[in-house]
TrEMBL record:
InterPro entries: 6-PGluconate_DH-like_C_sf (IPR008927), NAD(P)-bd_dom_sf (IPR036291), P5C_Rdtase_cat_N (IPR028939), P5CR_dimer (IPR029036), Pyrroline-COOH_reductase (IPR000304). Residues 3-95 form the Pyrroline-5-carboxylate reductase catalytic N-terminal domain. The keyword Amino-acid biosynthesis applies. SUPFAM superfamilies: 6-phosphogluconate dehydrogenase C-terminal domain-like (SSF48179), NAD(P)-binding Rossmann-fold domains (SSF51735). Residues 159-263 form the Pyrroline-5-carboxylate reductase dimerisation domain. The lineage of its organism: Bacteria, Pseudomonadati, Pseudomonadota, Betaproteobacteria, Nitrosomonadales. NCBIfam families: proC. It is an enzyme of class 1 (oxidoreductase). Pfam families: F420_oxidored (PF03807), P5CR_dimer (PF14748). This is Pyrroline-5-carboxylate reductase. Catalyzes the reduction of 1-pyrroline-5-carboxylate (PCA) to L-proline. It catalyses: L-proline + NADP(+) = (S)-1-pyrroline-5-carboxylate + NADPH + 2 H(+); L-proline + NAD(+) = (S)-1-pyrroline-5-carboxylate + NADH + 2 H(+). Keywords: Amino-acid biosynthesis, Cytoplasm, NADP, Oxidoreductase, Proline biosynthesis. Belongs to the pyrroline-5-carboxylate reductase family.
Length: 270
């Protein structure tokens, strides 16, 4: 299975790195990238072919992975329409609907919409997937192999759920970093130096997440176990509740979901 990436930015870097580590050979991968500096970087980093012209990048490829910004997608998809043979198309663009990509490509229906996240860089991504009806069982397995090279994958049965995936896990690493930023700030205000605050915050976050993954219990139960009656955690959680922090986080994720849908509507009209 030969893969052509359209766009050689951050996400393509993560995915290509994962595929090569999984045993893919550089000869199976090609990148179409309009920026000459990026092309050089890709060649230098991975020893894979990087070209500027779409048609040149597609020769011999079975899968086209669209990794350009949502704003650039409709023009590229329309250009692709005339060049398609029997390619599987996978798009990772936020918000852009598989149904619109298919429409821009004159109804071509072998389209999968995927939403990975940046932990792909260390092969710890989670990716939501949605397939149009024209995608075969083999196409689905190939999609799982490609996105599975950088982490775990899950299929959604309805396209709207990809907006939810985008809001929860696509953007999610930013929420986690935001929380860690706050923990580090507090640690330093309490007299720890930057490196101590970093170590304590990050390892607490990673340890708690690992514990939750390995435990069969609900996270609320795990939280209760940290919270001694009359103790320090109780005081902190009460403060979070008084400030309505859970509500604020839930609202933020709804906002991201709304933005993903807006992106779909915005470009769906074109
Ligand atoms: N950054 C993130 O956390 C995530 C991003 N995404 C999605 O992945 C897509 C790519 O995101 P990034 O890699 O972060 O963006 P990026 O800006 O790092 O990469 C995009 C690349 O595409 C190139 N490009 C632009 N127009 C092109 C064209 N016509 N032909 C070929 N190359 C072209 C640009 O020069 C750039 O190198 C976006 O649609 C984004 O919504 C999906 C999941 C997570
Ligand atoms: O912020 C964005 O639009 C992209 C999609 C998910 C993560 N980054």
């Amino acid at each position: 299975m030969n893969i052509t990436f359209i766009g050689g930015g951050n996400m393509s870097f993560a995915l290509i790195g994962g595929l090569l580590q999984q045993g893919y050979s550089p000869g199976q991968i090609c990148v179409v990238e309009i920026n000459a500096e990026r092309r050089e970087k890709i060649k230098h980093e991975f020893d894979v072919e990087a070209v500027a012209e779409l048609a040149k990048g597609l020769s011999g490829s079975d899968v086209i992975l669209l990794a350009i910004k949502p704003q650039q997608l409709s023009a590229v998809a329309r250009e692709l329409a005339a060049l398609l043979r029997s390619h599987l198309i996978i798009s990772i663009a936020a918000g852009i609907r598989a149904t619109d990509i298919s429409r821009w490509m004159s109804g071509y229906a072998r389209v999968v919409r995927a939403m990975p996240n940046t932990p792909a860089l260390i092969r710890a991504a989670v990716t939501g997937l949605y397939a149009l009806d024209g995608v075969s069982a083999e196409d689905k397995r190939n999609t799982e192999t490609i996105l599975g090279a950088v982490g775990s994958v899950l299929w959604c049965n309805h396209e709207e759920l990809l907006d939810a995936v985008t809001a929860l896990s696509g953007s999610g690493p930013a929420y986690v970093f935001y929380f860690i930023e706050a923990m580090q700030k507090a640690g330093q205000e309490l007299g720890l130096d930057a490196s101590q605050a970093r170590q304590l915050s990050l390892e607490t976050f990673a340890g708690a997440a690992r514990l939750a993954i390995q435990s069969d219990e609900h996270v609320a139960t795990l939280r209760a176990r940290v919270t001694s009656q009359g103790g320090t955690t109780e005081r902190a959680i009460q403060s979070l509740e008084n400030d309505n922090v859970k509500h604020a986080i839930v609202r933020a994720i709804h906002m991201a979901n709304q933005r993903s849908r807006e992106l779909g509507d915005e470009f769906g009209r074109t």
